[in-house]
Amino acid sequence: MYGIHYEDSLCIPYHRREYNPIADKRYRETSFGDSNHRGRIIYCSVLQIKYCEKFVSEDEIAINGVNPTIDVAFRKINRNSTAFMIWKVENMNIVAVPRDQYGTFYDSDSYVVYAASQNGQVCGTDTVVREVKGVIMEYHIHFWLGSQTNPDRSGVAAYKTVELDNFLNSCASQHRESEGNESSRFLSYFKNGIKIIKHEFIENGQCVRVYRVRGKRVPVLKEMSKVSWDYFTSSDIFLILTLKNIFIWTGRASDAGEKLHAVKIAVDMKEEHKINNIIFVDDGYEKTLQDDIKKELSKYLPLEKRLILPEIREGDVNGNYQRSLMKLYKCSENNGKYRVVEIKSGPFQQNDLNQQDVFIVDHETNGIWVWVGRKASEKERNEALRNARGFVKKKKYPSNTRVTRVIDGHEPVEFKMLFASWRDDTKGIKPTILVSKYNASTLEDRPSLAAETQLMDDGTGSLTIWRIKQTNIVEISKERHGYFFSGDCYIILYTYQALAEQKHLLYSWLGSHATQEEINITTLKLNEIDDELGQLGFQARIIEGRETAHFLQLFKGKLTIFKGKGTDYDDSGKNLKMPSQYLLHVFGSTTYSSKAIQVSVKASSLNSNYCFVLKRSKRAYIWSGSYSTGDQREMAKGFAGKDFELILEGKEKEDFFNLLGGKLLYFTQMMKNDQDLRPPRLFHCCSSNGNFNAEEIMFFGQKDLVPEHLMLLDTNDSLYVWIGKLCSREEKRLSAQIAIEYLQTDPTDRDMNIAIIHIKQEKEPPTFTGFFPTWDKQFWKHYKTFSKVRQEVEMRNSCSNGKETNGISNHDKSYHSDFDQYDKYPVDILKGPNDKLPTRINPLNKELYLTHDDFVSIFSMSYKEFEKLPRWKQQEMKKKVGLF
Question: Are residues 352 and 409 in the same domain?
């Protein structure tokens, strides 16, 4: 590529027919690019450039500045207004997309998407242009590239993104999005989903089309290049649009939410195209269709050529990913050479970044982030995204890897969450809501307050506490409630009245020195108690040192944790002997934040920021650190009893230190309360075949809690596991493991000991519901499952005559049995030698990996009929057909 460089240079690729640079400017030519992408870049100060031999590709844009004359397409933008706008690249210009076409993208095109909102607020197709004053604005610019777009169009989109960013004073986040790997934020703009259409099909008037439906929250409808079984996988859903019917093919392992999306889309298609019928086709049951329907389907998708292998999706839409190790790189330019040097592996701290430089956060195929310090040069700022794309190529990551450029001081929340801690100068500390009494009625009526404080009531309900003793549980007498030992495990049942309803909570408390065997027994006994009480719907795992606010409230701020094991219990759980001498480190200043932990009776255990209680026989001393507060001292009194002596730091008598074994150095620096306020995050998570996947739901609401799903709400200090009523047995069984895997795979090196709270649909406490913008207890009353929606659609078909038309009711009910839960493989694979079988196949039960149609074809009976046969008969039949 060749260019002309003017002295007071700005750099811009140009794409129109003629140009008029200032004639008396001196210039020099510079070469760029390679033999595959030749063209010209003009560097000039007056940027009315209107000539190009061939437009530069996206990755070759070397921008040192932008046109001070903003593109006419952007002139409607007001920096102080909320807005959502989309432009498409046409004839090397950008043109506005009509609002009624928002969400429809052509795979051969490139687009620019602009989203402006108040900081942290939702934005999207429903956003209206509204001027706001006195608030922090958040800007995002995405350029979306279809899989069949060309370098010219992608180059214009990339350049216009930079031009728009400069118009916004270079404070926007720039996102490179590509078809099939869109970010969660991008998809969140389109609540009704997006459609990816092929231009050539429209131009050729194609009469039969195949669409794939993906996306658990936001549906992504993608038109396939041809009508072929090659695209079909067991985890997907496809729509086949013909002149007479719309076929909905549902993969055996497809998601319930995606199935519902597919039905809605099919109903809309039916109305749009005046189609008579919607026909449901089940993976592996294609031959059970009625003959005329089966014949029509086979005309487009020949059933004799059907070949569908089980497949684990990778790089799924809506941000579905497997978390991985992150690395931080520092970028610099020296003598015209751009250098990228690895600084460290994760986890990262905010102070790993500095304002003078540019850094790349490498999250591998999960996304590349380039952070530009506020004191970095303008050239570094404008070239950041291009250099990050070069990094992707150097690392040989997939070409559709997401790349995002963020600016120091304007980082979006998803970038901040990649760091172990992040403090915003402008955000400040969130004010605490002051309430005189945290009773159950108040907190039920004000769930946002319950979520903020993590309280459900004032702790005045009734407690039953058991201690794990060997393989049994022993109830603890009431006078000993609140005395725990770090070598033991406990189960706590709490009952309280909320409005007109009695509620129950089950906690397990695991001492930091308890054995794994005791922890396993605790989990087992906890589930037994839960079953006996009729599935309470709330189970919380509490690990010593990570007690939640409500758990502490149960003990009125007097929870005391001693070292060792409670070995002096008798079989009734009574007669515990307290240690005769101990030193307690007291934490907290309220009944829902206070606890005391036994520490070594040494002066070195003291800390100027806290209060300590020294108990020696019947004498008690409260030592108050110079930085402790009056509220802290008041809570310390609860651990000292009525008779105590208050000792202020610096005014101790020598006798006090003698009780501690003499004076020793201890921590005397003032500790800052740099609380890292992090927003709650909602994830759809699953773990299968050794792969953990987490899909974040941005700007979540109650509607994102789908009864067929298991969801995780991460509040930073606690992790809620929400279990839908229709969640699979396997997901329920793995729910605790999924929560642990989520924490283990978090690249910020999360604390594995935070509280994990399991709650069930329609039994959610206000500490959970308060994190949602609105909550309706009747929300799921009218929820329709896929089966119900499917039945309604089938009954409306013109050819149904009140009957189901897809044959599903004609085949045996093994469709709903465990037989369908197994991966399915072609017959020739299953008949091959055992040492060549895929690892997931059990060679002793090959028949379970056949589809229903193949099973009937081979055995001349359904699996349900086969299952009833004697074992010897089954083995004989399997030998006969070569599946033994």
Answer: yes
Name residue 758's amino acid.
Answer: H
Contacts of 736 by beta carbon, 8 Å cutoff, 6+ apart? 523, 541, 721, 756, 758
Q: How do residues 201-241 score in pLDDT, each as one tens digit?
A: 555 556 799 999 999 889 999 999 999 999 999 889 999 99
Q: Identify the bridge partners of residue 834 per DSSP, sorted by sequence position.
A: none
User: Quick one: 561 and 434 in the same domain?
Assistant: yes
**Secondary element (H or E) of residue 305:** none
Q: Do 289 and 281 meet the contact criterion of CB atoms below 8 Å apart?
A: yes
Cα–Cα distance measured from residue 263 to residue 789, given in angstroms and rounded to the nearest whole number:
8
Residue 126 structure tokens:
């429903």
Span 803-834, pLDDT tens digits: 555 544 444 434 446 788 788 888 888 988 88
Q: How far apart are CA 485 and CA 335, in angstroms?
A: 64
Phi, psi (5° rounding) for residue 776? -120, 115
This prediction's pTM? 0.86
Give which of 136, 143, 137, 153 is closest to 174, Cα–Cα: 143
In a 3-state reduction of DSSP, which class is residue 267?
helix
Per the structure, the complete domain to which residue 852 belongs is given by 812-881
Tokens at 185, concatenated: 């934020």
Q: Is residue 221 part of a domain?
A: yes
- Note whether residue 200 is domain-resident: no
What CATH number is associated with residue 268?
A: 3.40.20.10
What is the longest distance spanned by two Cα atoms in the chain?
100
- Does residue 332 sit in the same domain as residue 407? yes
Give a yes or no: residue 798 inside a domain: no
Domain containing 863 — which CATH number?
A: 1.10.950.10
Closest CA relative to residue 554, chosen from 609, 490, 631: 490
- Cβ neighbours, 10 Å, residue 103: 19
Please indicate, yes or no, if residue 151 is contained in any of the structural domains: yes
**Of 755, 776, 797, which closes a domain?**
776
**What six digits make up the tokens of 419?**
């760091």
- Distance of alpha carbon 62 from the chain centroid: 35
Same domain, 438 and 560: yes
DSSP of 160-183: HHHHHHHHTTT-SEEEEEETT---
